[in-house]
Structures are given as C-alpha cells and as structure tokens.
Amino acid sequence: MAKSMKRKKNLPAGKKVTWKEDFRKNGVLYLLFLPVLLWELLFHYLPLPGILMAFQDYSVNKGLFGSKWVGLGNFVDLFTGTGFPLAFRNTLAMALLSLTFGFFAPILFALVLTTYPHKKSRRGFQLASYMPNFVSAVVMCALATEFLSEKGAVTQLLSLLGAEKQNWLANPNIPVFWIIYTMIGIWQGIGWGSIIYVASISNISGELHEAAAIDGANRFRRVWHITIPGILPLVIMMWTMHIGMVFKMVGTNVLLLYMPQTYDVADVLSTYTYRMSFGGSNNYGLSTASGLFQSVMGLILLLTSNRLNKKATNYSLF
Fold this sequence. Notes:
Elements: H1 2-10, H2 19-25, H3 27-45, E1 56-57, E2 68-69, H4 73-80, H5 84-115, H6 119-130, H7 137-147, H8 153-160, H9 176-202, H10 206-214, H11 219-249, H12 254-257, H13 263-266, H14 269-278, H15 284-313
Antiparallel strand pairs: 1-2
Helix pairs in contact: 4-15, 5-9, 5-11, 6-9, 11-15, 14-15
C-alpha cells in the first residue's frame, strides 16, 4: 500500500496517457476488439447510405445516386398494400407472444436448473437444451412440419387428449399458427437463452441463501426474495433489448412454415415485404422502406420501454 502511494506521488500532476502509451500497454485488448470493429464497420456503418433507396425508384444500373427520387412513394405503396393490415396484425401478435412466453421461458428454465439438486442430471438437461440452437432453421422447421402433420407425433399425442387429427400448420384459425411459431422459438432458444441467467444466478452470494434457510425460508421463498431480485437488473436490460429487436426477430422461420392456407394468420412484415418486393420484379426501394419502418418502430419501442422501466423499477439500459 505504501509503495503504491509513493508511485502515485512520483507521477507528474495532470499528465495524460498518450494514445501510443495506451496502445503499448493494452495492445492485446485492441487486437481482440479489432474483428468486432471490422464487423461493425462492414455490416452496420458502410451500408448506411443504402437508406436512400427507401426514397428512390432504385435501379441497379443507375446506382444509388442516379436512381429516380420518389420521396415517400415506397412507404405509400407499403402501407396501402392489401396485405399490410393483416401482416402488421400478425407481426404484432407474434411479437407480444415472444415478449411474454418466449422471453420468460429461458428465465424460468434457468431458475429450475439452478435449484435442481442433482448436478449430473442438471448438466444433462442443460446440454440437451443447448443442442437445438445449433441446428439450422431449415432443419428445425422441417422437424416441426413433420411432427405437426396429420400423422405426426405431436398430432397423435394431441389426438389422445381429444384434439382433432389434422395438419396443424395448415390450420387457418387464430391463434393456432401464432402459438406454434412461439413454441418453436422457445424450443430452439430456451437453453441458449438461459445461459446468461444461469451465470448471473451463480454469482449471487450463497451466504444469503444460507441465512434465509436458517431463518426457515423454503426453496420457493429463497428464489422469490433472493434470486429474482438479484437478477432483476439483468432481466430489465435483456427485456429492453428484446423489445427493440422484436420486429426484426419475428418472421425468421415464417417463410419456411407458412402456406397459402395460412397467409391470413401467418403473413408478417418480412414475408409480406418479400412477396411485394421480389414476387414479380425486384423492388429494392420497397424492401428498404419496409426495413427502415421496422427499424424506426424498434427504436421507438426501445426508447419507450427503457423510459418506462426506469420509472417503474429504477433500472434502465441507458
């Protein structure tokens, strides 16, 4: 302690560390950050001028600065399309299901894992839950299509409970497809999404649980009064980020699952834009306008949720 105090006294007052000195000291950290920086520049900042396509009748031959300027024409075509109200409704419905069941499923799974007493069985459950995340979306949707077909395993199981035998993915009734889509998302992401919560729960002091157990608190009360408050800041942060990205996340697997019979209940903004933009001719301006609209909606939701969370819980992302 005395030596460190002497070193601080020997440093010239007000001396600033130069960039070269900082790089010489933390060069390894800069090298580790370099791939992330390149990724951000190549895929997030360099494409930004492409936003102009949303206001143009874009032509590949004429380029970004030679295409005809149409102002808000692409947005008018997007919003006045016959399928836009249904696509927006379906996107909103699936987003709400994702923000409730889809978001909280990994948290509940993490709570169950961390309170399960048998370590060997717990590791087996964890490993099994991680595996679907590494399976491609095409394979996952193919499995879901097979399980939910008229002769599929899930359909046979539901028939034992009194449900009608049918191809569930072809059912046009609300909210069958919405629930199926949400359950597939939970199946694929529950294990991977629980990792961060398991790590956060593991960092909670064990002395708090021991003291609560001595005072007579059972396992449920310890989870409710110690574990959940301990991970609440992380939950609020992840919730805010999830809300901001929900419009982009909805529709990832819809293109592989829906069919003409379920267009009215399964069509979302991404698939609706895909059909309008690339169904007949390549309308890059319309697809860019749709992407910009979804990004703006995500930004509004992010700022709103962050402000509401700060007022309600005194926790916020920024």
